Amino acid sequence: MKEDFLHYLWKFKKFDCLDLKTTNNEDVIITQVGQYLELAGPDFFNAQITIGTQKWAGNVEIHLKSSDWYVHHHERDAGYENVILHVVWEHDTEIFRKDNTEIPVLELKQYVDQDTVTNYQSLMAPKSWIYCEKQLKEADLFTVKNWQERLFFERLERKSKPIFSLLNQTNNDWEAVLFALLAKNFGLNTNGDVFFQIANSIPFSIIRKESSEVENIEALLFGNSGLLDVEKEDNYFKDLKIRYFYLLHKYQLEKVHIAPVQFFKHRPDNFPTIRLSQLANLYHLHRNLFSIIIGLKTVESCYELFQVPSSDYWLDHYQFDKLSPNKKKMLSRSFVDLLIINTIVPVQFAYAKTLGTEISESIIDLLMDVKPEKNAIIDKFNSFGLKGVNAFETQSLLQLKNEYCAKGRCLDCAIGVLLMREL
């Protein structure tokens, strides 16, 4: 048994509340269980409880055993001085405040129906992937859909945190933030962090000034990536290298040293050379990209915006000095889908938050038209009957797995709570 089960019991009053008594045989009447905030300090805040003849307003702390109070050193923490009731599964010792007054204890196990315990044990039975995998198909569709929306916005809130951090670093330059985020996502999982460092190593004011010549943007990106640190016979390579050192001198920039980009295990169309060239061309073709992206409402408008090729040199190259069959290298729709999920929507959401604007429906509508992601987590959920049919739903499922299933937070999950009631 875990404490989260006791939190669930208390939060939803899943016990016999009619004749509650403390371990000292005082009557307990619960008016309000309090707020479950999951913050440092007592578990439930601002509860209202009558103990004996005295009505109390304060906090409730919950443990498996009374002695856990001392195991967690709450007796030393002033934040627990306002605890009015200690709720435990098993009472094994008396608990005192700093002033030696005793804290009333409610031993919960004698008031909980055995079926509730059995349901919990069934839900938390040994798992192969997630605890409720055998019961997941039984979940009510209405509950699942409402929970998915909550999960989706939880995930967006998490994604917005690094955006606000970047804003602080760039003096609220949304264009610079967008550039860094796009670079990271152009690099995919393998090169994302390196591309992000590359973008952050170039003041965006320089990208603005040099965007009329795509070769200059390529020179900065390739140069700071380390791809120009060798010697090649290729004339295009030599030109980029000359431009790179000219731009370093022009803007009094220092040569940076960033971890090398990776080619290994990438399909040629995802080679860092191709992606960096496409990123350069995106900023060559579109000025004020941030204002354009904020206004995107449909998937088709996203696809149209990102109809971006690599530079002509890369028509018959994937790497410098190595000819390849001639092929126009455009951003694919599946790649743009990733940009929508990981850059466009998070940026739109974060920007709307700064303005106090509500855009939840338009964001959901946009992602409902994006194809579902394909990965092991989504495949597993599909096999257990919880299918993600679009990117809105797959983003929700990723949040569910990573923040709830993987952490055993079944009783903080709407699906877990539903299954507890129905088992």
Number of helices: 17
Mean pLDDT: 94
User: What fraction, in percent, of the residue positions are helical?
Assistant: 40-55%
CA distance, first residue to last residue: 17 Å
Low-confidence stretches: none
Rg calc? 28 Å
Features:
two-stranded antiparallel sheet, 423 residues, single chain, seven-stranded mixed beta sheet, 17 helices, alpha+beta, elongated, 48% helix
List the helices and strands and how they pair.
Blueprint: H1 3-11, E1 20-21, E2 27-32, E3 35-36, E4 44-51, E5 54-65, H2 68-71, E6 83-90, E7 105-107, H3 114-123, H4 141-169, H5 174-186, H6 188-200, H7 204-210, H8 214-225, H9 235-250, H10 272-285, H11 289-294, H12 299-305, E8 317-319, E9 322-323, H13 333-355, H14 360-368, H15 376-383, H16 391-405, H17 414-422
Parallel strand pairs: 5-6, 6-7
Antiparallel strand pairs: 1-2, 2-4, 3-4, 4-5, 8-9
Helix pairs in contact: 3-17, 4-13, 4-16, 5-6, 5-13, 8-9, 8-10, 13-14
Describe the structure.
It comes from Flavobacterium muglaense. It holds the Pfam family DUF2851. By secondary structure, this protein is α+β, with helices and mostly antiparallel strands. It has helices at residues 3-11, 68-71, 114-123, 141-169, 174-186, 188-200, 204-210, 214-225, 235-250, 272-285, 289-294, 299-305, 333-355, 360-368, 376-383, 391-405, 414-422; strands at 20-21, 27-32, 35-36, 44-51, 54-65, 83-90, 105-107, 317-319, 322-323. Among the domains are: 3-112, no CATH class; 176-184 and 193-334, no CATH class. It is built from 17 helices and nine strands. Strands 1, 2, 3, 4, 5, 6 and 7 form a seven-stranded mixed beta sheet that branches. Strands 8-9 form a two-stranded antiparallel sheet. The relative contact order is 0.11.
